[in-house]
Specification:
The chain is α/β, with parallel strands linked by helices and 93 residues long. 14% of the residues lie in helices and 24% in strands. The longest helix has 13 residues, at 68-80. The chain starts with 5 loop residues before the first strand and ends with a strand.
């Protein structure tokens, strides 16, 4: 299956290596207490969705699981992605 845009998936520690990749859209999945990644200061102009929740399956005191709202935000973000050679989605967590 061919996607109508380029996609890159990486970890937070790999973000700096993609700052000149022509990324147009970024999906950031971060723990609630994690600081803003410094690498985004070196990225060019891009559209970004930041989702913050803990990487858990079962609810646990003091932890924030992914929610229906997160899924709705993600789907809405996906609908805004343009198609074509200039579209490049970077997903990191």
């Amino acid at each position: 299956m061919r996607l109508p845009f380029r996609i890159t998936v990486c970890g937070i520690d790999e973000l700096a290596g993609h700052c000149e990749a022509g990324v147009s859209h970024v999906l950031s999945i971060l723990d609630p207490g994690h600081p803003e990644p410094d690498a985004f200061g070196t990225f060019g102009e891009h559209v970004r969705l930041e989702l913050r929740f803990n990487d858990i399956i079962e609810e646990s005191p003091g932890m924030l699981p992914p929610s229906q709202l997160h899924v709705e935000q993600l789907l809405g973000f996906g609908r805004t992605l343009p198609t074509g050679q200039d579209a490049h989605l970077l997903v990191h967590c």
